[in-house]
Amino acid sequence: MTLALNPSNVLGEFYISFWIPTAVLTAALVIKLPTIIRLWRDPLLRAVGGLLLLACGVFVFCTPSTIAAVNRLTGVPNISAPWCYSLITAFCGSCLLLIITWRNGLSDRSAVTRRALRWVVSVYSGVIAALWGLFLLADVPVERLRDLDTYYATTPFMSEEILLYLVAHAVAVLITSKLIWNWVRTEGLDAWLRWGLKLLGAGYVLNLIFDASKLIAVTARWFGRNVDWLSTDLAPPVAALSAILIAVGFILPHAGQYLHDRWRVRRAHRELRPLYQLMRSASGEGVPFVLRATPELRLTRRETFIRDVLLPLARHLDTGLGRRSYDAALDLGHPPERARALAAAVNILDAIEARRRTPEPPEPAAGPDTTSLLQEIGAVSRALRHPDEIEAVRALATAPAESVPVHE
């Protein structure tokens, strides 16, 4: 005996709880919330917050347990249907508004942009009003928690309501997806923003699969066919996965840039450690006690300390040794940028030794220019991690003149 393969049973293995995208969307909202509160006057940030809040509402109220609770609380069978349809419609309208504003920029006040925004608000507000009007006219006495779309697909007024919300959703998703993918192809985008947009685009493509599944299942009912599994078993996990991708797409540009900035600051702080330790030994100061500080503040303190010690040390710098060290580093095969860092390291080490021999040298008529040195402390600190290279440059720079090859 052979068993027929039931798509519903197969898809059941890939069920995604609606609470998972709800949690991811809530995390996205929590991550964005401090910025939204701090910059509340920014309409774009408010729109992002509102969109994420609507998305959370969609998955909270479209969960079967919540649908049953709302129906029971109001005493109206299937009152959750127009409520959920309205949330979905408001969400996709908000997506359109956000992408139009985000893509064109808040400074864009062109007639085309204003007309597009007004069109979206008026059309989707009208759709929501029509959804409630159609529900009041429909006769839907039997509560359906999971298959309302297909169960009432041929019921007068309710069939029109179901078709209206699916078409409104599909149109918004199609336009939003096209705008996003056009934006992805724009030159000069930040890498984090580009990847965030790609995830948003993938999420909206999945939304098109959701709409197609629902529409096929509903249309099949009109012709007496039953492919309800497309609506009850395929569409929900597709919608959940879509929401996860959309939430991550909103999170990624913010979180990615934040983590990149933290990594850059910590790397700069770590790179300055050799020069910082050298300046501490040269100044004779111990490690100052400081309260807990942000990475940016610790980096600023380290940079300030290095420059504060380098400035008085500059009186002991030998400009002639600096030039010879630079030529020596070039002769040893180092590129110009690396050669400058090695020459500066040699010069600083020589200046520390010179100050120990002569703490107060006579003041020169015109002190050496330390602008370049103070700006390149990161490169100098990295050079100090390679004492063998510094010693090779110093040996060649201080060798007798007749033994030094001429650098071309």
From TrEMBL:
<dbReference type="Pfam" id="PF20182">
    <property type="entry name" value="DUF6545"/>
</dbReference>
<feature type="transmembrane region" description="Helical">
    <location>
        <begin position="12"/>
        <end position="31"/>
    </location>
</feature>
<dbReference type="InterPro" id="IPR046675">
    <property type="entry name" value="DUF6545"/>
</dbReference>
<protein>
    <recommendedName>
        <fullName>DUF6545 domain-containing protein</fullName>
    </recommendedName>
</protein>
<feature type="transmembrane region" description="Helical">
    <location>
        <begin position="238"/>
        <end position="260"/>
    </location>
</feature>
<feature type="transmembrane region" description="Helical">
    <location>
        <begin position="79"/>
        <end position="100"/>
    </location>
</feature>
<feature type="domain" description="DUF6545">
    <location>
        <begin position="262"/>
        <end position="384"/>
    </location>
</feature>
<feature type="transmembrane region" description="Helical">
    <location>
        <begin position="162"/>
        <end position="184"/>
    </location>
</feature>
<feature type="transmembrane region" description="Helical">
    <location>
        <begin position="43"/>
        <end position="67"/>
    </location>
</feature>
<dbReference type="InterPro" id="IPR050039">
    <property type="entry name" value="MAB_1171c-like"/>
</dbReference>
<feature type="transmembrane region" description="Helical">
    <location>
        <begin position="196"/>
        <end position="218"/>
    </location>
</feature>
<keyword id="KW-1133">Transmembrane helix</keyword>
<feature type="transmembrane region" description="Helical">
    <location>
        <begin position="121"/>
        <end position="142"/>
    </location>
</feature>
<keyword id="KW-0472">Membrane</keyword>
<keyword id="KW-0812">Transmembrane</keyword>
